Amino acid sequence: MNIIINNEYITFENLSDFDLGQTLECGQCFHFEKIDEDEYAFVAYDNLYVGKQKEDKLIVQTFRPGDVSQLVNYLDLNRDYAKIKKELLKRDNKLKAAIHEKGEVRILNQEFSETLMSFIISQNKQIPHIKKIVADISKKYGAYLGSANGSDFYSFPDIKTLSKIEINDYKELKTGFRAPYLYDASVKLNSYVDELNIVNKERAEIDNIIKRDIFGQLNVNEAREKLKEIKGVGDKVANCVNLFSLSYRNAFPIDVWIKRIMEDIYFKNEVSKEEIQEYAEKLYGELGGYAQQYLFFYGRDKGLGK
DNA sequence: CTCCAGGCCGTCC
DNA sequence: GGACGGCATGGA
Predict the structure, then answer these.
(1) Where do transmembrane segments lie in this chain (predicted)?
(2) Which nucleotide comes closest to A227 if you measure CA to C1'?
(3) Which of A95, A137, A148, A282 could be bridged to A41 by S-S, CB 3.0 to 4.6 A?
């Protein structure tokens, strides 16, 4: 991979095992819009990016001076996915079709607070509606970041701002029964900031400190239980946060889709979530998160097990 | 009109 | 500890 910086444009050359569209559309994040063929506007932390990819070349427009390494880390571009896929196929050749079709997905390293709130919203909702609510919350409480293709983009509200949002405010944003859950999450997020005595820090740094000092010493099971202290967070939401934000690549979230897909591919009949969890752990081990995402995206696209 | 959505909670046994 | 209904809202 080669990186060239020219004013507000960052160009990545010789990319491998990466597709921006696949990475954003696979269901791991909700704060983006497709604005043209192979062109996406996406928000990470308090940055807006507009990326256009042609084969192994990606050009990203930025909207304020920032650290390139932040974007590289967000997109997980410094990891050897060829090696991961090779190892996964060695463990289980049944992943072949999924990896062949969706093998250019990368697992993002997203901001903890936004990922947590987004996946609390995600329960019992379809992806387009999750995206709408995330955009609405950002528009109402976040900061304006820039415009792309006629649409305005806003940051997801930071923790300090979240702490001022009341249950009824969330209800007005059509979050329904999730409103008290979102409120409780914002209280917990704020308590982390207080507990760690984080003052006067930049947004990304606050995120780093929470990840390091609250979750850094925990294994994936401990982190999941810690997250479940938040109302409205169960096994599935917790594992999504583990995988897509806290970098536990062995987390294997089980939702209605992955359950049906696993039953279709491996079991040929209905099995419990616990059984699937155990099976995935044995089969994929520390690479479970990658396998889960290839399977989820592939299966959802194919309508497997519907 | 019905049924379901990247689930989880409270209550029941 | 396992099963089950309820839950807000929107789209098929």
Answers:
(1) none
(2) B8
(3) A148
